[in-house]
Amino acid sequence: MKDKKVVVTGGLGFIGSHITEGLIENNEVTIIDDMSAGKLDNIKHLETENIDFIKGDITELNLKSIFDDKDYIFHEAAMASVPKSVEDPVKCNRINITGTLKVLVAAKDTDVKKVVLASSSAVYGDSQNMPLKEDEPLKPMSPYAVTKATGELYCNTFTDLYGLQTAALRYFNVFGQRQDPNSQYAAAIPNFIDKILKGERPVIYSDGEQSRDFIYIKNVVDANIKVCESNKTGIFNIGHGKKTTINELVKVINEVMETEVEPVYEDPRTGDIKHSLADVSKAKSFGFEPEDKFKDELRETVRWFAGGVKAK
């Protein structure tokens, strides 16, 4: 993508800052972020002359004036914590549903060519039909998952009713640099790396044979840009299409970090799913092809968290 004017909502967050990084060299990027979770530190390494930062809440800003001369919208802003959504479903609804609706209305009313929505594999709930396909019946098990499913429906409706091109990307277990290991929604990889760096034993809930589909952040950025440049609309799984058990994950992290830390096993957590695996064949239609470099990707992630730790 070159010479475009784009907006990244939630552009100071983990995924949003990486999308900004992937676009900034050849495009003008406007970031909208209320800084409730995002950090300016996440873009401090970037040349800022092509970045316009607007601090504010997407439910309160005049988005139409912001979108007026923009080409594309990458909508990453959200309450991304399942526990927080359970604690305050009304706030989650306001941010994730009302916010998404406002983004879509503003895009429809301007010359925006496409909106790419960050959705989540959480919409599948505890479905056992692996690998998960986009036409699988949804079983959202939290207010967060409900809001993501609703955002997808709104995207489809705006495409069908108003002709606004939209794509909703169902992220699976994303990992990489700048992910917060201390957040309520911390993923296994940053949490395990952080624990081992501190000389602590990572905690595995259940027997560790539960599996996840881990996808590196740079592949997620690639998916966002490729679907945006394509004429594809609809819902797409964004995962690796490969399952890794939590026990296997700890083993590989130990190999990369040259450690032999044994995890602590605790009782399963209520609501945790046993397995998650994406069928990514639909996303291949716009050129999404994640590389099979899991250990290398973990190595890069470890280096960032450790600030240059020796990684085997």
UniProtKB/TrEMBL annotation:
Top-level taxon of origin: Archaea
EC class (word): isomerase
Molecular functions (GO terms): UDP-glucose 4-epimerase activity
A family per Pfam: Epimerase
EC number: 5.1.3.2
Domain NAD-dependent epimerase/dehydratase: 6-239
Record key words, sorted: Isomerase
SUPFAM superfamilies hit by this protein: NAD(P)-binding Rossmann-fold domains (SSF51735)
Protein name: UDP-glucose 4-epimerase
Organism field: Methanobacterium paludis (strain DSM 25820 / JCM 18151 / SWAN1)
